[in-house]
Each structure stands twice: as C-alpha cells, then as structure tokens.
C-alpha cells in the first residue's frame, strides 16, 4: 500500500508540473531562497535517483561486497538453527509483555503510520526550508521503496511459514514457494523493514552516540513485538534488519557522493558484522 501511494504521489507531481525530459535530467541544486515547489521537485528527483541507484548497486559490487553477502548468508543459516526454540520462548513469554509495547510495535511498523510520520517530517522540512529534514525524508523514502519492493517479492517467492503455524504441525523449515497466503509470508519481516529503515536513516543525522541508541531502541520495538506475537522467526527479523541497513547506507552514500544535499562533514559509519562466539550468534554494530 505504501509503495503504491508513494509512486502515485510521484506521478502526480510530475503530471501537475508538466515536466519535459530535459527538466527531469536537470539535477542542479536549488538555492535556499528557492520556492517550495522548486525544492519539492528537486527532492522528488533525488528520491527517484536514489531508488535507481540502490536497485542497480549490486551490478557494481566488489569483492568486499560479495564477502559481506556471504557472511550474511552464513550467519542467517547459523541463526536459523535456533529459530524454532527461540520462537517458542518468545511466544511463551508474550503474556508477560505489556499490551502497550505490543500495540506500539504493531503501529510503529505499519505502512500507514510510517507514511504519515515521514510525510509530517518532510512537510515540516519543506515549509521551513530545512535541508537536513528534507534530506532525511528523501533518504527514508528512497530506502523504504527499495526495501519494500524487495521484501514484498521475497515474501511471496520464498513462502516461509509463520511461527503461528506450529499449531498446524509446521515449523521454520516449511515453505510454500510463490504463495499468496499471508500465513506463508514470514521471510523477511515487513514491520522490521519499515521500522529499521526509518530508525537507521534518522540515527544517521545524529553524532551523539546516546541519541543514536535512543533512536535504534525505538526502531527495535516493532521487530521485537513481532517475535513475541509469533508473527516472525528470528531470522526473518535479522534478515530484514540487514536489508534495511544496507539499503539506507547505499542511498546515503549516493546522496553524499553526488552532493545532492549539504553534508558539512562525513558522519562516522556504523560497522555491522555477524558475531560468532561459542553457542552465540549475533549482529553487532560498532559506532
């Protein structure tokens, strides 16, 4: 739904502006005194370019990128060995989790709330002509469309059974490829994709470590609540988190390299790696 809405909005902007092909190719950065319409059109162009870049980035991957992908695959497979046990533990303890937390997780990761929150962020940035807010919103829009398309296709193509299907005799290793049934749309987690995409994009705007921790903590509410609700396996959430981080970093790097927005200084990137230690497997972020 959110993807259709965003694309419809983009097409509407293009239609009402009556743009020519040359205007679309013109990506010159407008001045601070430019009209709101000019700024909005510029942001739309950057969003489209960011989406195009993120989808074509795998064509330019280097050895380290494939190494990262390989590490991710191995880590996911290793994590999947405890999917059934971890899910049973989460579901068993759902009754101890406050309803407020569960409700907040469901809302935070929903497309409707996600779109409204980002629309409010972008609207504020546009009216106030605040470039940092506009840039953040463009980063969120470009990344969420990319991750949204990927996770939607993956859900249907992979057709993994959800944890709640355990009552029907199914487990984490049961699949129904190219299924249109919601109960077989577990991998990856859509709520996680949306919440982590926004959290990571917003966290990038802060240099303070504690601010980042606060943002990521809010972004983790939806993924964790989905585990307690029995809607997803641990690897569904892990894979969605990895996808979101990679895409946001790619789009952010593109906007930086093309000087699309003001980056006074290059922010320190967070290094994400899978950690293997004894009988523990985890995703570790180094600030």
Write structural notes for this entry.
Residues 140-252 form the Phosphatidic acid phosphatase type 2/haloperoxidase domain. Residues 1-20 form the signal peptide. InterPro entries: PAP2/HPO (IPR000326), PAP2/HPO_sf (IPR036938). The protein is mainly alpha-helical. The chain has one domain (2-286). The chain contains twelve helices and two strands. It has helices spanning 2-17, 21-25, 36-56, 63-80, 83-92, 99-108, 111-127, 131-158, 190-203, 209-219, 221-228, 234-257; strands at 271-277, 280-286. The chain has a two-stranded antiparallel ribbon. The chain is globular. The model is unreliable at 1-22 (pLDDT under 50).
Lay out the secondary structure.
Blueprint: H1 2-17, H2 21-25, H3 36-56, H4 63-80, H5 83-92, H6 99-108, H7 111-127, H8 131-158, H9 190-203, H10 209-219, H11 221-228, H12 234-257, E1 271-277, E2 280-286
Antiparallel strand pairs: 1-2
Helix pairs in contact: 3-8, 3-12, 4-12, 6-11, 7-8, 8-9, 8-12, 9-10, 9-11, 9-12
Question: Could you write a compact summary of the structure shown?
Answer:
This protein is mostly helical and 287 residues long. Helices cover 63% and strands 5% of the residues.
